[in-house]
Amino acid sequence: MRRTGSEPLTARSPLRLRFWLGLWGLLWAIAGTVAFALAGRTGWAVACGVLWLVITVDLVLVLRHIKQGPHYQPGPDVPPYEPDRGGPGPGGVRRGDG
């Protein structure tokens, strides 16, 4: 069985784009936190600070995934998985029956 063509052969993860957009957002979150804190708008400063924290965690995870490098991707000679149609599994026993 050959590949169906429904999966891209040259698919790439947009991690670098996500990193740069996250860095751009991080700069704005830092600027917002500082600006709102100086303006005395505590609620908005806290909101920007929370956003700053979320973006920082996301950037750490993105960098971790980039450092892991590409993972194994099957070649064009490897057939795609057949979808599970809920029928009997190996040996004629339905999965979940025991």
From TrEMBL:
<keyword id="KW-1133">Transmembrane helix</keyword>
<feature type="region of interest" description="Disordered">
    <location>
        <begin position="70"/>
        <end position="98"/>
    </location>
</feature>
<protein>
    <submittedName>
        <fullName>Uncharacterized protein</fullName>
    </submittedName>
</protein>
<dbReference type="Pfam" id="PF19870">
    <property type="entry name" value="DUF6343"/>
</dbReference>
<keyword id="KW-0812">Transmembrane</keyword>
<feature type="transmembrane region" description="Helical">
    <location>
        <begin position="44"/>
        <end position="63"/>
    </location>
</feature>
<keyword id="KW-0472">Membrane</keyword>
<feature type="compositionally biased region" description="Gly residues">
    <location>
        <begin position="86"/>
        <end position="98"/>
    </location>
</feature>
<dbReference type="InterPro" id="IPR045924">
    <property type="entry name" value="DUF6343"/>
</dbReference>
<feature type="transmembrane region" description="Helical">
    <location>
        <begin position="20"/>
        <end position="38"/>
    </location>
</feature>
